[in-house]
Amino acid sequence: MKRILLPTDFSENAWNAIAYALTIFKTRECHFVLLNAFQVGSSGLMTKMGRANETRLFQLLKEESENGLKKVLEKAISIDKDPEHTFQTVSLPHSLTNAIGKTALEERIDCIVMGTKGATSLKEVFLGSNAYKTIKNINFCPIIVVPENWESSLKKNTILFITGYEHIFEAYEFKAVLDLSGLLNSKVLVAYMGKHEELTPEQLKAKATAAKHLNTVDHEFIAMEEETFITTAIQKTVAENDKIGMIVMIDYWHSFFEKITSEPVIKKVAFNSKVPLLVMHLVE
What we know:
The chain is built from ten helices and ten strands. The chain is an alpha/beta fold. It folds into two domains: about 1-145, HUPs (Rossmann fold), CATH 3.40.50; about 160-280, Rossmann fold, CATH 3.40.50.
């Protein structure tokens, strides 16, 4: 059974991510955990009155959180009739990142699916930060971030796996990709920005191991057009192939692309992608 964590702030964007998760895992036995986090700011008052006010505020926020989760649960159940899908709600008085980490560990979560708002001007700084904070801080679980206004569709089922062939791949790095490929009956495009004939011996070895790990699914190695920014190359590739419904990247500190471009690739893709992004983390 897959255990999927679905954080929500009760926004339409968060609901779209939940609907997406219900769609892509609809043929798999799953337990979905709906999570809402809330925080009570310290009043700074040490009086009994101050503590009493903070306690009342806590109770109000907790009640609001639990009522909101109840409504989301009812909505999810109303559209998901799969008898192999079960649901649970969790309300926690923590920051969202801490609540996600705590719940992911305690509930033995296999994958996190959450929404992210697009980046325009200051929105990237003030509104889009939760998804990226989760990607950077929760490094023990695959994370799927779903862009604003994304409409779930199984017709867009090609997976675009971005790599610089930085290291010899381990089998676990492809587990989530293979799982999703099987669920969606999808093809995996392994994409590199540059010419394959210019790969180093080390990169060729990495490519060979990727082929070995993907030998059970339909896959193809492609070269993306070289651009000043890797994110531009990714966006062009997605725009030119209307079957691509997910981008996959591995996040680790010595990323090939970030070394050669000083570009925060995953951050930019998370904020600007038109399709869902699956981020996995390399176990150092």
